[in-house]
Design a protein that fits this description.
single chain; alpha/beta; Rossmann fold; 7-stranded parallel sheet; 3-stranded mixed sheet; 13 helices; about 20% strand; binds nicotinamide-adenine-dinucleotide; binds sulfoquinovose-uridine-C1,5'-diphosphate
Length: about 400
């Protein structure tokens, strides 16, 4: 298949591009390098030494014999470049990773809130409008987030996107409907993912655009079979207080002897997936596309759920790291249960990589190996969901 990957230089997009290329697909990357520029803004760098984009692509050609082309432009701003590319390439599928993806970054200031909303919602709308204007039947595969549901289960397993409801009209009549699961975003970033859902629903019903929306949990791990083939192909590893996600942060902290930073009581329960499962899920989504006229297909892309304090204890038992319970910079429930339906990917043959399979390997092969590149000053998460005075007023 011909596949355009928007955001193909990022943490999920780069290994996905290599995986799809390795499986024989023709891959074209679009990325404006905004993520690398945000590293400059925050004065941090990936724990792993990521190569410049053209070096990455040259290295892939050397080790695999396969070409991946790259177009550097902003999907949220350069609508006509996107449209021309789609007309030239005539892709079967477009995978959309090109969004600002960190919740803490989206909450840093009013500028960061506005940037995240403008970037993410315009990128998604531009993509859908361009697919319609091209007149082609292209399958759009988007990376959504488990966070669109919020993390409370209301006593049920979170279904894959849609919720069956029964509405009581009067004493005798009830109506049954299937609706999008009520959105409950916990940050401006997560809010953009709930807005994306409405854009997909609209273009799908009005223009019959075929869409798969993947509500992904927190991704952990770094390397895939393809990114490990040459040091120049190494994937990024974010550990800083804005972009580092919780499990990779714990693994890096354990590797450098920094106490594990558990926010609040650590009673938050979240969904997780390994990066090697992420790339496989994208391929499964592409090769099992909805038919023309089908409604938006939604998958929950996760393999296990864990309570954060249990994760911290697991990492501590494996490595001897100490645990620090710190004041939570976010505004989120201190304790929650989380049960998630993920049958669709399992039925398509996904084989989950569990924490038990990969944690120690990740600490030894990545976190310890590159620990010398860590700037300890950048570890604390300083982005506050509410200004200090508001936080005190709410206590
Ligand atoms: P990332 O920031 O590493 O990658 C995103 C890439 O998109 C970057 O290379 C960036 O330069 C590019 N980009 C952003 N805006 C762009 C624009 N307007 N035009 C062109 N390129 C643009 O993030 P990631 O971790 O790879 O996440 C990819 C997607 O998966 C995101 O949409 C994110 O919301 C979703 N997701 C990520 C995780 C996770 O744990 N990392 C979990 C669930 C969902
Ligand atoms: N947390 C800690 N200690 C830390 C860092 C985080 O306790 O050092 C806590 C947070 O307070 C939160 C939880 O860990 O309760 C998860 O935080 P995170 O930064 O690992 O993940 P999150 O902000 O939810 O965002 C990440 C990705 C995002 C994706 C989302 C999937 O950055 O792109 O959409 O995971 S999900 O969480 O399932 O919505």
């Amino acid at each position: 298949m011909r596949i355009i990957v928007l955001g193909g230089d990022g943490f999920c997009g780069w290994p996905t591009s290599l995986y799809l290329s390795d499986r024989g697909h023709e891959v074209v990357i679009v990325d404006n390098l905004s993520r690398r520029n945000i590293d400059n803004e925050l004065e941090v760098a990936s724990l792993t030494p990521i190569a410049p984009m053209t070096t990455r692509l040259r290295a892939w050609k050397e080790v695999s014999g396969r070409d991946i082309s790259w177009h550097r432009f902003d999907v949220a701003e350069n609508y006509h470049r996107l449209l021309s590319l789609i007309k030239e390439e005539r892709p079967d599928a477009i995978v959309h990773f090109a969004e600002q993806r960190a919740a803490p970054y989206s909450m840093k200031s009013s500028w960061h809130k506005r940037y995240t909303v403008n970037n993410n919602i315009n990128a998604t709308n531009n993509l859908l409008a361009a697919v319609v204007e091209s007149g082609q039947d292209i399958h759009v595969v988007h990376l959504g987030s488990m966070g669109v549901y919020g993390y409370g289960t209301a006593g049920l397993r979170i279904p894959e996107g849609y919720l069956k409801v029964e509405v009581r009209v009067d004493d005798e009549h009830r109506i049954e409907q299937e609706i999008l699961y009520p959105p409950r975003p916990g940050s401006i970033y997560h809010l953009t993912k709930t807005q994306d859902q409405l854009l997909f629903a609209y273009y799908n019903s009005n223009d019959k655009v075929r869409v798969t929306d993947l509500h992904q949990g927190i991704v952990w791990g770094t390397q895939t079979e393809q990114t490990s083939r040459d040091e120049r192909l190494i994937n990024r590893f974010d550990y800083d207080g804005d972009y580092g996600t919780v499990l990779n942060r714990f693994l890096m902290q354990a590797a450098i002897g920094y106490p594990l930073t558990v926010h609040g009581t650590g009673g938050q329960t979240r969904a997780f997936i390994h990066i090697r499962n992420t790339v496989r899920c994208i391929e499964l989504a592409i090769t099992n596309a909805p038919a023309l006229g089908d409604r938006v297909r939604i998958f929950n892309q996760m393999t296990e759920t864990h309570r954060l304090r249990d994760l911290a204890t697991l990492v501590s038992n494996l490595t001897g790291a100490s645990i620090d319970y710190i004041e939570n910079p976010r505004n989120e429930a201190e304790e929650n249960e989380l049960a998630v339906e993920n049958r669709q990917f399992l039925d398509l043959g996904l084989e989950p990589i569990t924490l038990q399979d990969g944690l120690l390997e990740e600490v030894a092969d990545v976190a310890k190996k590159y620990a010398y590149r860590c700037d300890r000053e950048k570890i604390p998460s300083r982005s506050l969901w509410r200004a200090r005075a508001d936080r005190e007023a709410h206590v």
